[in-house]
Structures are given as structure tokens and as C-alpha cells.
Amino acid sequence: MLEAANNSDLPPIPGKRYFTIGEVSELCAVKAHVLRYWEQEFPQLKPVKRRGNRRYYQHQDVILIRQIRSLLYDRGYTIGGARQQLSGEDAQTDVNQSQQIVHQVRLELEELLRLLRR
């Protein structure tokens, strides 16, 4: 689902446990108000809410947001079509997320290798 070509311009996802809405906005190139709207439209997207209803997204949430972004912006799906596509791919979601995580780890390792070679 989430091809590297569609999100190659996005920064790598850091190895943090939780991300604020501002961090996710930068990582996914989507404005914060759009993220809040997508929470209403996509039942799979449920960030943890803490003190004062502050949202904290986990790594899998960022990957899901990138998938939604790819469906809507790169592949031209409507909100309803993207929702249907994501719900129909529940069995394949784990495989796609695993592939995305492997790709992300590879990018991070390559970056570390570049830093070590300096």
C-alpha cells in the first residue's frame, strides 16, 4: 500500500514512542486541522489523548496517516474510497506496516552509516 515512491519526500520517522500533532504534521506533510478531521473520518486512527485532550500519536498512527495521505493525495481517492480501501485491507495492513517499518529502519541505518563515515 505505502510505496516508498509515494512518500520518499517525507522525512524518516524517528524512533520515538509518542509524537505530538505538530510533529506528525511535519512528518506527514499534513496540517494539524486535517489530522483532526481524519480522526473523525477514519476509525482506525485513534491517537492517545492525555492532559487537556492533547493528542499523542504512536509510530503505527504515523504510518497509517502516511497511508491515508498516499491514498488521498497521490492516488486520488475520496475520503469514502480511502476509508473503504483501508477497511478492506485489514488482513494486508500488518504486512504493509511491516514493510514500511523495514523500509524506515533501513533509511535510518543508512543515515547512521553516513554519519559514521564522516
Tell me the strand percentage band: 5-15%
- Could you say what the CATH topology is called? Multidrug-efflux Transporter Regulator, Chain: A, Domain 2
Low-confidence stretches: 1-5
- Indicate the CATH architecture: Orthogonal Bundle
Q: Which strand order do you get reading across the main beta sheet?
A: 1-2
Number of domains: 1
**Main beta sheet:** 2 strands, antiparallel
CA radius of gyration is 15 Å
The level-1 CATH class: Mainly Alpha
Distance between the termini: 35 Å
Succession of helices and strands: HHHEEHHH
Derived from helix and strand composition plus strand pairing, the structural class reads mainly alpha
Shape: globular
**Strand segment count:** 2
Mean pLDDT: 86
Helical residue percent band: 55-70%
Structure, described:
The chain has 118 residues and is mainly α. It has a single domain, classed as Multidrug-efflux Transporter Regulator, Chain: A, Domain 2 (Orthogonal Bundle). It is built from six helices and two strands, in the order αααββααα. It has helices spanning 4-7, 21-28, 32-41, 59-74, 79-88, 90-117, and strands at residues 48-50, 54-56. It has a two-stranded antiparallel ribbon with strand order 1-2. Strand 1 and strand 2 (54-56) form a beta hairpin. The radius of gyration is 15 Å and the shape is globular. Mean pLDDT is 86; it is low at 1-5.
